[in-house]
From TrEMBL:
PANTHER family for the chain: MANNOSE-1-PHOSPHATE GUANYLYLTRANSFERASE
Top-level lineage group: Bacteria
Record-level Gene Ontology MF annotations: isomerase activity; mannose-1-phosphate guanylyltransferase (GTP) activity
Upper lineage: Bacteria, Pseudomonadati, Pseudomonadota, Alphaproteobacteria, Candidatus Pelagibacterales
Keywords: Isomerase
Entry keyword annotation includes Isomerase: yes
Record's protein name: Mannose-6-phosphate isomerase
Pfam families on file: MannoseP_isomer, NTP_transferase
Annotated ranges, domain Nucleotidyl transferase: 5-281
Transmembrane segments: none
Domain Mannose-6-phosphate isomerase type II C-terminal, first and last residues per copy: 284-395
């Protein structure tokens, strides 16, 4: 039996857009002729998987169908949530549809994760398929590349049959705690799950009977039209809003881990997005987008909807004007050198891999006091992303009009 992929595609991705009311959900953002949902759909085309099931809501239905068409996926089912109830009801409801046999292995993907080396990932799933039972759950750990406080962690121990049993979860820790967890061989908790349909049913019956009862009703009363299940609103709204982690993972003892050492990110912050653009900047570089300034130069790498990605090169002893913007905030990631940053009344030094957030209207400046160039990848986020939106207060190159 092939593995059935279920793609959870209901998230709003609000963390990236602090001030915007009509923000884009992260899975649909065009990062340069590709989206995270598109990459997820391409990943499940592998021979490992059966036709996908997509769990989403009415607001995103059109966008999901557009993606399915673009990625040439004609066999699929969509399960529409009529209300936001977090991941536990979403996971259960999509597993309960009649298309799925009871012992079917299900692989739950987030629609907005960037996973590289998919062949290693698929090999690990296939290897563990035989270990699935009607009770257990496999979760995916990613070997940490840094003591990040943006992800949760877990710790495992080896048990019979060479299986990694999860012994402890650690909620997003502070950096110092994350370092300790990594020393104990802790892995990032990626938020992906691998289990059989009967295991989902048994776990919900045991630990979340109210969610189970209401989801069964929501699915049995659902309307099926054009490969899309419209879940019954009255029943689904009665399901308690809980995350799958809180509803099931924190209660059951039968959790095992598949540990992977592959590049992975949920692109959940501008720092992560800037790291991705820095790694792939050669794909975006165009000579005509290079602009020279007295302090050095910058390159426009990619302009998306509501954001612009640049790389700044500040030459030794170069100093940008003291400035602010009316229509945009900025995120900076230092990739080389040690810039001195002015932010309102503070000034401080930063080093490689440091992230700096410049709020709307904040007065700021970058200065390179060293003898080596400073490189910064910048995301401008806002409604107007033009050079005209600069108010200068001081400038050593005499550019204040």
């Amino acid at each position: 039996m092939k593995i059935r992929p279920v793609i959870l595609c209901g998230g709003a991705g609000t963390r990236l857009w602090t001030n915007s009311k009509n923000h884009q959900a992260k899975q649909f953002i065009d990062f340069g002729n590709w989206t995270l949902l598109g990459k997820t759909l391409d990943r499940v085309k592998s021979s490992t998987f059966d036709a996908p099931i997509i769990s989403t809501n009415l607001k995103y239905l059109k966008e999901v169908k557009k993606h399915l068409k673009k990625h040439k996926i004609s066999k699929y089912k969509i399960v529409l949530e009529p209300a936001k109830r977090n991941t536990a009801p979403a996971i259960l409801a999509s597993a309960l549809i009649k298309d799925i046999p009871n012992e079917q292995p299900l692989m739950f993907f987030a629609a907005d994760h960037l996973i590289e080396k998919a062949s290693i990932f698929n090999k690990a799933i296939n290897k563990n398929k035989a270990n699935l039972t009607n009770q257990n759950i496999f979760i995916f750990g990613i070997k940490p590349t840094s003591p990040s406080s943006e992800y949760g962690y877990f710790i495992t121990k080896k048990v019979k049959g060479n299986i990694n049993k999860v012994t402890k979860f650690i909620e997003k820790p502070r950096e110092a705690k994350a370092k300790q967890v990594i020393k104990q061989k802790g892995y990032w908790n990626s938020g992906m799950f691998f289990l059989r349909k009967d295991s989902i049913i048994n776990n919900f019956k045991k630990y979340q009977p109210t969610i189970y009862k209401n989801c069964v009703n929501a699915v049995s009363k659902a309307k099926l039209k054009n490969n899309t299940y419209y879940l019954n609103k009255a029943s689904f709204e009665k399901a308690t809003a809980k995350s799958f982690d809180y509803a099931i993972l924190e209660k059951t003892k039968q959790i095992n881990a598949i540990k992977l050492d592959i590049p992975w990110s949920d692109l959940g912050s501008w720092k992560e997005i800037l790291k991705m653009y820095d790694k792939d900047k050669n794909k975006y570089y165009k000579k005509k987008n290079v602009y020279y300034r007295p302090w050095g130069k910058y390159v426009n790498l990619f302009e998306g909807k509501g954001f612009l990605i640049k790389e700044l090169f500040v030459k030794p002893k170069g100093i940008l004007s003291l400035q602010k913007h009316h229509h945009r905030s900025e995120h900076w990631l230092v990739t080389e050198g040690k810039p001195k940053i002015t932010l309102n009344k503070d000034s401080f030094s930063k080093k490689q891999n440091d992230h700096i957030f410049i709020p709307l209207e904040a007065i700021h400046r970058i200065e390179n006091k060293g003898n080596k160039p400073v490189k910064i990848i910048e995301a401008q986020v806002g409604s107007i992303l033009k050079e005209s939106d600069i108010v200068r207060f001081q400038d050593v190159y005499g550019r204040i009009k």
